[in-house]
Amino acid sequence: MNYCVRDILPEDNEQLKVVIQKTLTEQKCFESVNLTDPQRLKDLYSQYTQEEIRFWVVENRESNKIIGCAGYAPLESKICELQKMYLLPEARGCGAAKALLDKIIQGAGKEGFEKIYLETMPRLKPAIRFYKKNGFEILSRPVGNTGYVGCSVYMIKSI
Hints:
alpha+beta; single chain; 7 strands; 5 helices; seven-stranded mixed beta sheet
């Protein structure tokens, strides 16, 4: 597949909402605040274009459709949190997730973060394998207070 990883644009908001909601529904993550609180997805561009907060999309170059996304935001001193990493089935298995994660880690390192943290759900075994393969280690307890419901797998990686 011919794709690119690029910065979020204001006109991406509606497509991102669809990607996130489709992915959560497919994975049966019905308790996610991204499904239960639609206001959270109304304007991702504004949320993720602030100081030390970044967001990227994976775009299919042939269709110009967004097929994935992720970003980061500060969590604690020198630790940022990987947020909203979602990829549609068509974006999986072609290297897009790795390219997106690499872009995030590179960006976070340039911002001065030393570690990247994430929370996920135990049933998302392919995601957990992906993160482990890319250097994330499982923690016994959460870092900071993210407020996520249902996420009980905590992972961190040094940048």
